[in-house]
């Protein structure tokens, strides 16, 4: 169910009412794809081994879909909201971290997507605060870069 919602959200961001530039969409998506892959690799594998995904202590086919579509897609949707409404950075980061934590809680409690082994749900909140801070800073950097490129093209 969450996956279907995320797919509709991605469709909305990319096709229906796009506010982000294609370059921003691609960069945000790739950043989060990389962070998801590295994060799961380090946190779910020895020596830390904080959680198992689905029913195994190593990756499986569904992990690929989650890492490549669901996690980056959710953050892409949130970043679209950031551009669209320009909320306070702190409020946006905290609200986004709460949303991501709730989605993870639903995944754990209703769909058994993760089995925590020493990990606590509130760790996820702090992890998502970090993740969304990186996303906001990255978005602002890339936006500044794009604007500078467009200005330099106009002057030449």
Could you characterize the architecture of this molecule?
This protein is mostly helical and 156 residues long. The chain has five helices and two strands, in the order H-H-E-H-H-E-H. The chain has a two-stranded antiparallel ribbon. The longest helix has 35 residues, at 121-155. It starts with a helix and ends with a helix. The chain crosses the membrane at residues 20-44, 64-79, 91-115, 121-139. It comes from Cytobacillus spartinae.
Give the overall shape.
elongated
Taking the sheet with the most strands, its summary is: 2 strands, antiparallel
Domain count: the total is 1
Strand ordering within the main sheet: 1-2
What distance separates the N and C termini? 50 Å
- Helices, by number, come to 5
Task: Report mean pLDDT, rounded to a whole number.
Answer: 85
Contiguous runs where pLDDT drops below 50 for at least 5 residues = none
Radius of gyration using CA atoms only: 17 Å
What is the chain-wise order of helices and strands? HHEHHEH
Helix content range of the residues, please?
over 70%
Number of strands: 2
What class do helices, strands and sheet pairing give?
Answer: mainly alpha
Q: What is the strand content?
A: under 5%
Protein name: CBO0543 family protein
Transmembrane segments: 20-44, 64-79, 91-115, 121-139
Keywords: Membrane, Transmembrane, Transmembrane helix
């Amino acid at each position: 169910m969450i996956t279907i919602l995320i797919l509709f959200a991605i469709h909305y961001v990319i096709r229906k009412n796009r506010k982000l530039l294609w370059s921003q969409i691609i960069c945000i998506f790739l950043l989060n794809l990389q962070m998801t892959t590295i994060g799961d690799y380090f946190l779910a594998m020895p020596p830390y081994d904080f959680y198992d995904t689905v029913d195994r202590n190593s990756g499986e086919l569904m992990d690929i879909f989650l890492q490549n579509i669901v996690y980056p897609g959710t953050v892409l949707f949130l970043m679209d909201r950031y551009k669209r409404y320009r909320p306070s950075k702190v409020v946006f980061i905290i609200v986004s971290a709460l949303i991501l934590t709730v989605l993870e809680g639903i995944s754990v409690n209703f769909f058994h997507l993760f089995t925590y082994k020493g990990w606590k749900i509130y760790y996820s909140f702090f992890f998502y605060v970090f993740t969304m801070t990186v996303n906001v800073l990255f978005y602002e950097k890339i936006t500044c870069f794009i604007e500078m490129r467009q200005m330099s093209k106009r002057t030449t």
